[in-house]
Specification:
The chain is an all-beta fold and about 300 residues long. Helix content is about 0%, strand content about 50%. It is built from no helices and 19 strands. The strands form 4 sheets. Strands 1, 2, 3, 4, 5, 6, 7, 10 and 11 form a 9-stranded antiparallel beta sheet that branches. Strands 15-13-17-18 form a 4-stranded antiparallel beta sheet, with no helix packed on it. The protein has a 3-stranded antiparallel beta sheet with strand order 8-9-14, with no helix packed on it. It is elongated and about 70 Å long. The protein starts with a strand and ends in a 25-residue tail after the last strand.
């Protein structure tokens, strides 16, 4: 299953007698006003799905850009869920002339990082922080024709980009463990930003993603750690490394799991012993062996 944002786009012919603030000599009747409604989200991947509004969802930021047939960006709009002066998920007042366009939308949860999305082309978007989660993106071709006289309705589905691992540690944290880190795509350089193709959700580089967790104060507990990653192909088999350190950053426990397959928009759930081993003794009993007959003198 995949998380999906459904964006309903309504194109409305603009009727106005004023030509104020126009940078060209185009008549007002040559423009169309585009209203974008990004209001419906389907949650939760792999487990259950429920439809909620953008305001009720996990998304905290939305960026929408429109490019003309020459891939020139003619519009950029950004929204924050915390902005009380807007209806989160609705873009209005976008003015376009006749032509063919691509609408590119990126929505995500910045989880307090203030990460800003910059969509520079229909195939390149960058989010300047790696600690974000729940990234949705897509692009959609549209045609604008003010002469057809009818409202145009376009629906865009934004699939979840990236992948998620839910790592359940099923033995108790020892008192000397202070930090736990989990790295997806171990062996690759860590990503410093998320640069990806909005239409495919694929990262532009082969990078690793690490979640660092301070577990001081959680001695004796069995935590669950969520790790998000963005990969350059799906499905992809990667190495996953878990490392446990003391307060001085000395490694106490370390283990690498190889050939773990990740899929876009999917959750991988893992349960593992980290600090101990699940012992299941296998006992082999020897049979009597008949010796060769020996001549005694």
């Amino acid at each position: 299953m995949r998380k999906t944002i459904l964006a309903s786009l309504m194109l409305l012919a603009l009727v106005s007698s004023s030509c104020d603030n126009l940078e060209t000599d185009l008549r007002e009747s040559e423009f169309v006003t585009l209203s974008v409604n990004a209001l419906t989200i389907e949650d939760e991947p792999l487990v259950s799905k429920s439809r909620v509004s953008a305001n009720e969802s996990e998304a905290t930021r939305i960026c929408l850009c429109i490019f003309d047939s020459d891939n020139k960006r003619v519009y950029k709009g950004e929204q924050l869920k915390s902005d009380e002066n807007i209806t989160f998920g609705i873009f209005t007042g976008i003015r376009l002339v006749k032509g063919d366009y691509k609408i590119v939308v990126v929505a995500y949860n910045d989880y307090g990082t203030d990460a800003v999305a910059d969509i520079t082309s229909p195939t390149i978007a960058t989010i300047g922080q790696t600690g974000i989660r729940e990234v949705y993106s897509t692009e959609k071709d549209i045609s604008i024709d003010p002469d057809n006289g009818a409202a145009q309705n376009v629906q865009i589905s934004l699939p979840l980009s990236g992948t998620k691992m839910v790592f359940n540690i099923i033995d108790k944290i020892p008192s000397d463990v202070a930090y736990i880190s989990i790295t997806i795509n171990e062996g690759q350089l860590p990503a410093s930003a998320i640069t990806f193709n909005p239409s495919t959700g694929l990262l532009s580089s082969n990078s690793s993603f690490t979640r660092d967790v301070d577990v001081r104060g959680y001695t004796g507990q069995m935590p669950t750690i969520n790790v998000y990653a963005f990969l350059n192909e799906y499905p992809k088999k990667c190495s996953v490394k878990i490392k446990c350190e003391d307060v001085n950053k000395v490694t106490l426990y370390s283990h690498t799991y190889n050939n773990v397959e990740f899929k876009s928009g999917h959750i991988i759930r893992v349960a593992a012993y980290i600090f101990s081993q699940s012992l299941a003794p296998s006992l082999d009993f020897s049979e009597w062996i008949e010796d060769s007959e020996i001549l005694l003198e």
